[in-house]
Prior knowledge:
Blueprint: H1 9-17, H2 27-36, E1 42-49, E2 53-60, E3 63-70, H3 85-104, E4 112-116, E5 119-123, H4 143-159, E6 162-163, E7 172-175, E8 178-181, E9 188-189, H5 197-221, H6 228-239
Antiparallel strand pairs: 1-2, 2-3, 3-5, 4-5, 6-9, 7-8
Helix pairs in contact: 5-6
Amino acid sequence: MPNDPYLDKSVRWRIATGNLGFQEPGYRDVADAILDAGLATEVLQRIGSGKEADVYLCLDGRRRLAVKSYRFYRTSHRGGRPIKLDSMGHQASREYELLVYAWRNGVRVPEPGRRVENMLSMEFLGSLERPAPRMQEVVPSDPARLATETLREVERLADAGIVHSDMSPFNILVDRDRPWIIDLAAGVRVDRLGASPWIRLSEASAALQHGVDALARYFRKHGQEVEVENFVQGLVAKLDRFGVLA
């Protein structure tokens, strides 16, 4: 049995007693889990599915929320074994921590709510008719302004000590004509001790290059050029305050 402190009592009990099955919970079971955890008072519908999690539109009283529920066992990795429950709890815990950290440092991310086991709640972005679209689905009315604001948020995220390791138009929502960064679970923290600074900064530099390249391809399709090398080099220089990579 894992002894990780982030596991809640109910999860530890299920692992200890063997009360676990490899069948993924259905919609009704997930909705009941959200309600039982007190993350919302009503689950309206599922509004999104990713590689490892589903997102549900919920109500907490009269306030609309998005609740992200990591799947327990399914994995999209070809040939991989089922993901353990404690691993998915760790994913939710990590995303929640980075979301809180980014939000407190002024990055435009959904306002975090609470986390329970493999689920976390956050601000819902969108209208009554539909959730906010991913940037990939949007034809911007002002590509230059959207590019400027998007790169500004990437920079703010880096200023907060976080680099998104999967930055792309698929992980940015556009709400009220503004970009909102989402899916921070795989973020790289560059402001923490515990690992080699060279390794951490190298990972961050590679992630920035890959992410800004993806954004540049999107904006190029809409007639807007992004100076990728200058932007990435400037951010890496700010992150590498002591010249570790040099």
